[in-house]
Design a protein that fits this description.
With 581 residues, the chain is mainly alpha-helical. The chain has helices at residues 9-18, 42-60, 62-99, 118-129, 131-147, 160-174, 176-195, 207-210, 217-256, 266-313, 316-338, 349-375, 382-390, 392-413, 418-426, 431-436, 442-472, 481-540, 543-555, and strands at 31-33, 36-38, 558-562, 568-573.
Length: 581
Amino acid sequence: MSDSDDGGMSDGLQVELFHPESDRSPGDTNIQRFGFDIHPIVFPVALLLIAVFIAATVLLGEQAAQAYAAVRGFFEGNFGWFYLLAVNIFIVTILYFALGRFGTIRIGGVEAEKEFSDFSWMAMLFSAGMGIGLMFFSVSEPLYYVSNVPGFFGAEAGTGAAGVAAMTQTFFHWGFHPWAIYGLVGLGLAFFSFNRGLPLTFRSIFWPLLGERIYGWPGHIIDLVTVFATLFGLATSLGLGVAQVNTGLSYVLGDMLGLVSIPTGTMPQVVLIAGITAIATMSVAAGLEGGVKRLSTINLYLMLTLLGFIIIVGPTLYIFGAWVEGLGSYFGNLLSLAFFTGTLGEGGGTVGAWTVFYWAWWIAWSPFVGMFIARISKGRTVREFVMGVLFLPSLFSTLWLAAFGGSALQNTIVGNGAALATYNELGQTVAMFALLEQFPLGAISGLLATLLVITFFVTSSDSGSLVIDHLTSGGKHDVPKVQRIFWAVTEGAVAAVLLIGGGLNALQTAAIATGFPFAIILVLMCYTVYQGLKNEHEILSSEQFAERIQDLTDQDEVDVVTTGNETVTEIRGGADTEGGD
């Protein structure tokens, strides 16, 4: 292997000094037939197990729903402590990677360039990571807590203290912890794929432990668990989203405008899943640039429009006051909340019903979001990656929650209480629209919110299809269009069947159950990513690497960028810059 002479210096260096000695390449054993490019083990086994699960859900009917409830109760009752501990480990680990000596390592090598602008990167990042969930829970979750105060706080329901508790608990569930999970997974996948040249699948992260065995059955099992976690975590989000679209259209067009009566329930939601999945398949067919990137940018503009609307027409001062007070309480209670299980006293109900579900859901969704983040993050340093993934989306989430949740709390505590009354009567899927009804142009903003949920549905399906394609094609970066469409349809079908078989409880149970084995994998991953980054840093600091850089500097017009300790962080073509460090 030699350095290229066309400006691809780090590619040559990356292969020569950093890639493992292996004659394997991503997808080298794939089967290519009927327009598909599939891994001979992962694809058919995953498909078979998914088909068996769907058939059992349909055939067992009510028994399946009861089984889902029992499984959810088992995991919440016995392993809640593990979910909480694991996620705290993840947040400490990723901060260590970013703030320590590994922070200057560049994803893709020292000459890797960013594929997407910072704005496009953030838009895709946020659309994949939080969209549907924030729309679904941003009003309903604070409304639940103000009436059912989390045991950690011990405040009186319906009071200002209950409002502070509601904001704090909601910020906790949508703040740093979920994004730490996504960031850890995304960093591991990006590093081992772009810096080590390994397949863009979860098996690659375990190269420091398994070596060449990642291409055997240990790797197959890891990828199969990842496919299931991704599929069912995504199905949960799609199920929540379509339930909100259904009730939103019914409430806005029927109750608010009196134009048409739209039925609500499982079958209308299945029809909506089919329709929105059809839109998603067209977006998937357009690819990452033409479909996902464009829709993610539209999503962000729609979110900012809706957010700006509620801040302007809503209780503006109350929103910003709730945001600042909520942040203060969140930061002040973060450590205690992060480890609170409710075991030593009354009040563990919120942990089991909400926190454990959320942490399991984020973990189950992390292969999907993490791999998508990895796919779009080449060229960023570890520090830039972690700061971008961990802090900006978290802070934006808190502002969104303060705007919508804070407005709902203001309506409940000092207003007419209409939002809470409608929530108690019709359920959490209507909460967003009941709140918007309290302000001018409520019907228009309600339709905008519904459109936003639909576009989030489409981008989630797009991104999920892209990720499962990577997993079932041996880690190839580019997969056939027909294969992307196949998985988009499959995701919609799984969400629809789970809704028929047990409703939202079935979807949430699937996320919790698949999240548990995957949480164990992520704990091991903390060690393997550490080993990979440690090895990269040692090579970057070695005399051999310094000599190769000196050769490049002598032979080519390049600029070398280093950190204060003389570790090379970037190589740029001399014609593109005015000088190096």
